């Protein structure tokens, strides 16, 4: 892994944003609680794919399309649908040593740290865009949610 580069500098180097756009986003970030990447996307300066690609490069993490992943049911059971959706985290695999997660924001570590401590496993993270992750989370948890709802109806 090379020297750390800020997200805006990576986007600028890849010619995904201009210096004027970077400056405007930096000024807005000073008055906002949003993540820098969110600001760039909301302003229309960058796409979610641009942000995910640069985060992957910045943090030396793989970027993937979560629709191409079939989550292990044991991994899914570690996080409720509501928590997965809210935190944009999709548990995808569980081995004796690792817990693999697909995340939208690898720097949001409250839930990931909790999962690592609870399972006693090291985390293996991959990045996906928020939109793609929301769809994958709904797809992964939907059968379980339908079964849970039907079983509650039968009580």
The largest pleated sheet is described as: 3 strands, mixed
User: What's the Cα radius of gyration?
Assistant: 18 Å
Classify the helix fraction into a percent range: 40-55%
How much strand content do the residues show? 5-15%
Please identify the structural class as seen in this structure: mainly alpha
Q: What characteristic shape results from the CA principal axes? A: elongated
In order across it, which strands form the biggest sheet?
Answer: 1-2-3
CATH C-level class of the largest domain is Alpha Beta
> CATH superfamily assignment of the largest domain?
Type II secretion system, protein E, N-terminal domain
* The number of domains: 2
- Give me the number of helical elements: 8
The CATH architecture classification of the largest domain is 2-Layer Sandwich
Intertermini distance: 55 Å
Low-confidence stretches: 149-155
Q: For the residues shown, what is the average pLDDT?
A: 89
Helix-strand pattern: HHHHHHEEHEH
Kindly report the CATH topology of the largest domain: GMP Synthetase, Chain A, domain 3
Number of strands: 3
Describe the structure.
By secondary structure, the protein is mostly helical. The chain has 2 domains: 7-59; 66-153, Type II secretion system, protein E, N-terminal domain (GMP Synthetase, Chain A, domain 3), CATH 3.30.300. Helix content is 53%, strand content 12%. It has 8 helices and 3 strands. The protein has a 3-stranded mixed sheet with strand order 1-2-3. β1 and β2 (98-103) form a beta hairpin. The N and C termini lie far apart (55 Å).
What are the main properties of this structure?
three-stranded mixed beta sheet, mainly alpha, about 160 residues, 3 strands, disordered C terminus, GMP Synthetase, Chain A, domain 3
């Amino acid at each position: 892994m090379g020297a750390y580069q800020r997200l805006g500098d990576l986007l600028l180097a890849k010619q995904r944003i201009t210096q004027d756009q970077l400056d405007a986003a930096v000024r807005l970030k000073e008055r906002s609680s949003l993540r820098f990447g969110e600001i760039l996307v909301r302003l229309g300066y960058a796409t979610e794919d641009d942000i995910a690609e640069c985060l992957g490069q910045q943090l030396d993490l793989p970027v993937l399309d979560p629709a191409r992943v079939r989550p292990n049911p044991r991994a899914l059971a570690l996080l409720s649908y509501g928590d997965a959706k809210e935190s944009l985290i999709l548990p995808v695999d569980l081995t004796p040593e690792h817990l693999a997660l697909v995340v939208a924001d690898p720097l949001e570590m409250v839930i990931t740290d909790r999962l690592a401590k609870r399972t006693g496993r090291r985390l293996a993270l991959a990045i996906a865009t928020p939109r793609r992750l929301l769809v994958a989370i709904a797809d992964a948890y939907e059968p379980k949610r339908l079964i849970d709802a039907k079983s509650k109806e039968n009580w």
